Amino acid sequence: TVTRYRNEDKRQQYNFYRTRQWSHLRQRVLERDHYLCAYCKVQGVITPAKTVDHIVPIEFDETLKANVDNLAVICGSCHRAKTDWEQLYYGTGQGNELQSVTPINDVSAIVVLMDKE
User: Fold this and answer.
1) How far apart are CA 52 and CA 74, in angstroms?
2) How does pLDDT run across 78-93, given as a tens digit for each residue?
3) I need a surface site. Which of 31, 55, 57, 62 has the fewest CB within 10 A?
């Protein structure tokens, strides 16, 4: 079981996903990316997807949470791989400590880095 709402910051992050603003942003990104995984696409693979992901995690930089340029469509397997990579690179996730690193907002670069893990 995943325990959500570990603290007040997390509670606010998860509440954002229940807002009308998020709903509109999500729909805009899905249509912009034609419901195709941006991470697979840079590898030359076409994968339908319905999840919208923050390229730079909002746990690392909350100011980017409503920035449409920080959002991309992602499939389940890329999302799992990216989450694992984010935990190593940014220090996101339960029990981890946020790292002082340069945010990477280029999907192509992230795919290369995810592949190395």
Assistant:
1) 6
2) 999 999 999 999 999 8
3) 31
The SS3 assignment for 74 reads: strand
Q: Distance between CA 88 and CA 82 in Å, rounded?
A: 10
- Token pair listed for 42: 């840079």
On average, the pLDDT of the chain sits at: 91
pLDDT bin (cut points 50, 70, 90) of residue 25 is very high
d(CA 89, CA 1): 24
Give a yes or no: residue 3 inside a domain: no
Residue 37 in any domain: the answer is yes
Whether residue 1 is contained in a domain is answered as no
Strand partners of residue 52 = 73
Identify the DSSP state of 36.
Answer: B
Question: Distance of alpha carbon 41 from its chain centroid, rounded?
Answer: 16
Helices (H) and strands (E) in the chain, counts: 5, 2
User: Whole-angstrom Cα distance, residue 23 to residue 4?
Assistant: 20
Number of structural domains found in the chain: 1
